[in-house]
Amino acid sequence: MTASDPTDADPRSAPRTRGWRGASGGGGDALAGLSGVLRGLSALFWALPLALLAFARHFLAIIPTLYDLVLPTVAAGLALYGLFRMSSYRPGERIWRSSLFRSQMLALLVVGLSPFLFLWSRVPSMDFFARAVALLLVVSLVFLVALLDTLERLAAMMPDDTVRGDASLFRGLTAYVVTVLAGVSVTLYWRIAPGHLSEFLEIPRQPLGLGRQAILLLLILVPVAMAMAVTWKLKEVVLAAMVGRAIAADRDGSLNGTGNRTG
Question: How far apart are CA 149 and CA 103, in angstroms?
Fold first, then answer.
């Protein structure tokens, strides 16, 4: 028998211990790179609601302004920045790195497709813009599921069992909500059978579409809220670890100084 590479192990199957070094395989200092993780989680926490507000404006019959050209791209770029800030953590964990890379690539696609929201709201009759917006919606939903998977794998390397359980639960719920939303959208599209894709995308913007807007926002708000909850809990765990390490370093420094004076 040959020993398996510890970096190939799934972080979610690692033994649940209280210490950071035993949180997952791969060895090394598990606290290294936590500053980047903390900054990345902070960026994600603020990017998610900003993106929800920026994207929802285009489906609520609000007159588009020049800010609507910038806000979706800025919000998606902030999420992409947060994911790239976490790249320095655990570079040897292959499954963690693979999940993080998928989220980064999906976030990059969202950034590239975001300007089409403004273009479509200005020229809704152009079919190319409508297809780009439809692709943006699909990629955004897939990104939410991928983001929760990345956060779950990050939580698996943390010494907090509660965060692990919440991340796993919320990932499953997010996948379920996104699947339901996608199924309802496809079913509605085939039942209505619009002549153009723009007609289907403009359904929430119709004068009698307030109920549709409320339902749509509620369905989208659920996975966004769950991602924000997991992000906030992970921030607390990482911040507590960094504060604890700083206190331990100060204590060791004071003990070393006392020993040198007595020597």
Answer: 9
State the pLDDT at residue 232.
93
pLDDT tens profile 71-113:
889 999 999 999 999 998 888 888 999 999 999 999 999 999 9
Are 64 and 58 in contact by the 8 Å Cβ rule? The answer is: yes
* Contact status, residue 49 vs residue 74, Cβ threshold 8 Å: no
Give the C-alpha separation, 54 to 67, whole Å: 9
Whole-angstrom distance, CA of residue 163 vs CA of residue 155: 6
Q: Which residues are CB-contacts of 261 (< 8 A; sequence separation ≥ 6)?
A: none
Closest CA to 145 of 182, 193, 97: 182
Q: How far is it, in rounded angstroms, from Cα 53 to Cα 141?
A: 15
Q: What's residue 16's pLDDT?
A: 40
- Mean pLDDT (the chain) is 78
Q: Exposed e or buried b for every residue in 148-180, given b needs 16+ CB within 10 A? A: bbbbbbbbbbbbbeebbebbbebbeebeebbee
Rounded to two decimals, what is the model's pTM? 0.79
* Whole-number Cα distances in Å, 147 to 33, 125, 154, 196: 19, 33, 10, 32
Helix boundaries (H) for the chain: 34-56, 67-85, 94-113, 115-122, 127-156, 161-192, 197-201, 210-262
Which helix (DSSP H) or strand (DSSP E) does residue 206 occupy? Answer: none
Number of H helices, E strands in the chain: 8, 0
Q: How far apart are CA 143 and CA 138, in angstroms?
A: 9
Q: Report which DSSP code applies to 9.
A: S
- Per-residue pLDDT of 208-245, as tens digits, reads 555 666 677 777 888 899 999 999 999 998 888 777 76
Residues in the chain: 263
